[in-house]
Amino acid sequence: MLAVTFAAYGEPSVLQLTTMPEPHAGPGQVRIRVRTAGVNPIDWKVRGGYLRDIFPTQFPAIPGAEAAGVVDEVGEGMEGVNVGDEVFGLGSGTYAELAVLHQFARKPAALTWEQAGGVAVAAETALRALEILHTAAGQTLLIDGAAGGVGSAAARFALAEGVTVIGTASEANHAYLRDLGVVPTTYGPGLPARVAGLAPNGVDVAFDTAGKGSLKELIEITGSADRVVTIANFAAAEHGVRLTTEPHAFHALPRAARLVEEGRYDVAVDSVFPLADAARAHERSEGGHVSGKIILAVADA
Ligand SMILES: NC(=O)c1ccc[n+]([C@@H]2O[C@H](COP(=O)([O-])OP(=O)(O)OC[C@H]3O[C@@H](n4cnc5c(N)ncnc54)[C@H](OP(=O)(O)O)[C@@H]3O)[C@@H](O)[C@H]2O)c1
Predict the structure, then answer these.
(1) Which CATH architecture has domain 123-243?
(2) Can you say how many angstroms the Cα of residue 6 is from the centroid of all Cα atoms in its chain?
């Protein structure tokens, strides 16, 4: 099968389109013929060797943690899923024609393949963070970094739950946030004063998706380190803030699918690249200013 691989850590140019052996679905897994794969920051962090102590890589490696496609092999012990089903989910080595998923849900008809490939990582991460924060209808949530993949997903889940959402983004993404139903503001110095102007009754909880050093301000805004969670600031413990890194909120996948069917969840596609252009997709992700998800169109490779 065709796959994007890298044989050493390095710049995006280490990514090459090559032929690799086909993977097979193990117990509790399915293999899909990949239509689209989502590009996530962890993909280039692994490729660049920045996470080599946490995720040691065996070369050649195929990047990619999520995809959407058509089931073509069902692993042992799997019920309720059949060859031919259209699904999206979490897996490994998804920048390829065939990939194994270990968590998945049925693709809602209302999502295009391009949207479906970018649902799983953002939805799981976002719902995990919101559940740690115990968000509830009537509350006000501040998302620092609301225009990215995870920030947008958190906004969708929270808004669907009846939470008011204030989100930070660069000016270029404020219209995108308004379309989502998020009250936009800029990030950086002076955030507490700007947020106070937008939420006179205060902010209940805050979610840092960006990891750019705003935790002190987020604690000031919410009044307590217990009301803040981060997915990207590895100095969180110094502030008494919880950092969450282990995926476990897999119920986010069927929940996102159900909300899509109800018209209460959508996926914005930042950009689509052919599989052969994975290096350009990584460059865009590393640039750090997306609105929504970067997608690889694999079936067209
Ligand atoms: N711990 C976990 O389990 C977990 C899971 C998934 C992701 N992550 C990590 O979480 C981070 C976000 O992931 P993602 O997929 O949402 O990334 P993404 O889609 O690339 O989005 C990044 C967003 O950050 C915003 N941003 C850039 N500089 C900022 C700043 N100084 N302050 C606030 N926001 C800023 C950008 O908005 P503008 O364009 O408007 O500047 C952009 O939309 C990454 O570091 C990723 O590795 C962690």
Answers:
(1) 3-Layer(aba) Sandwich (3.40)
(2) 22
